[in-house]
Amino acid sequence: MASPTLITPATTPKPLPLIKSRHTATAPTAAAAKAALPSAPQPRRREFLSIASASILSAGLISPVVAPALAASDEEYVKETEEVINKVRSTIGMDKNDPSVADAVATLRETSNSWVAKYRREKALLGRASFRDIYSAINAVSGHYISFGPTVPIPAKRRARILEEVETAEKALLRGR
């Protein structure tokens, strides 16, 4: 037995009742409602998407693609990396009783964070030996000071490894690597 709400080919769908707007004072008549409906069919989503994608693609072909700007030139990278190397060496070499150790560590963290933020996304620099070594040294120094505080000196083995990485990074910089 078929349910009365089931639409079959033998039945014809009934028109939906008009929804009365709260903003109109008079109820629209059936003739006014028919006149308000557009006679042309509404564009479908698929047609809209095809038109929109075609216009986007054609605009992409017409306008030239601009390459993203590089963060810095090679000379700027070398200069800023040497600055970070000097700050790492000076901060590691400070005496633990020096009252300016905390300020030096804070300055080193600011400098190293800005250096890493600037050059980490550069694909051309990621393969360089200088980048790899100085990044590793910065990571070791920052990790130590974050874990143990700015006044705790770096242990001798860690200090030796950091200084070795800094030396190899400096040599690689001089060779243009």
TrEMBL record:
Membrane-crossing residue ranges in chain numbering: none
Source taxon at top rank: Eukaryota
Annotated localization: Membrane; Thylakoid
The entry's keywords: Membrane, Thylakoid
UniProt GO cellular component terms: chloroplast thylakoid lumen; photosystem II
Keyword Thylakoid: yes
GO biological process: photosystem II assembly; photosystem II repair
Full protein name: Photosystem II repair protein PSB27-H1, chloroplastic
Lineage, top ranks: Eukaryota, Viridiplantae, Streptophyta, Embryophyta, Tracheophyta
